[in-house]
Amino acid sequence: MFRREPGSLFWILAFPTVLLAVLGSVPSFREAQDDLGGIRLVDAYVPVTVLLSMIMSGIQAMPPVITGYRERGILRRMSATPVRPAAVLGAQMGLHGAAALGSALLSLTVGRAVFDVALPRQIFGYAVALVLATASALALGALVSALSRTSKAATAVGSAVFFPMMFSAGVWLPVQAMPDTLAQIVEALPFGAAAEALNQAAAGDWPGPVHLGVLVLWTAVLTAAAARWFRWE
Predict the structure, then answer these.
(1) Which residues pair with 40 in a beta bridge?
(2) Domain extent at residue 13
(3) Dihedral through CA 183, CA 25, CA 131, CA 69, nearest 10?
(4) pTM, two decimal places
């Protein structure tokens, strides 16, 4: 059923890499920037496109699917079986999480092959931050799914959450280029913390425990809230 949704396939799997390709084709994005610590803008935007795939998957793609099941009575019929809400949410989170991780790998591959972006130097730390960021995005999407009664409501709520999360991920301005006060606020949000954790791992350092802790905390709170407020109909 997921493969039959060309919109979801494009926005999750293709759009982040397409955005990276468009930005990387701008000459100024391939020049070193002093305010970014000597790296190029295209280097800074690889983690951003990685996070964008998670935002698209967890917040934009998954909630309308689950709320669509609720509208069509599919969840009501499931409620008469041994299936629990955690299983329904878990299956959708696993599917969309796998798609987001696949998109992240595609962005890393294109960044390296086309724009000579260095691969993460701390690969294990990068993988940990990547998995935690994906879990946070999906947990947020699960909460939107639990609270929204219809697909239209899920799309509206998802859109309202989407743009602040994109900003905190650094889509319009990389986190390391933000003013100190704004950066501190952003780093308390899941995607701001994820952006910093990915940048640290890419530079060869283990992601900061504070940033990883923020991701774990957000994931735990959002998941618990989604399971608590999930309704079959």
Answers:
(1) 32
(2) 6-229
(3) 100
(4) 0.85
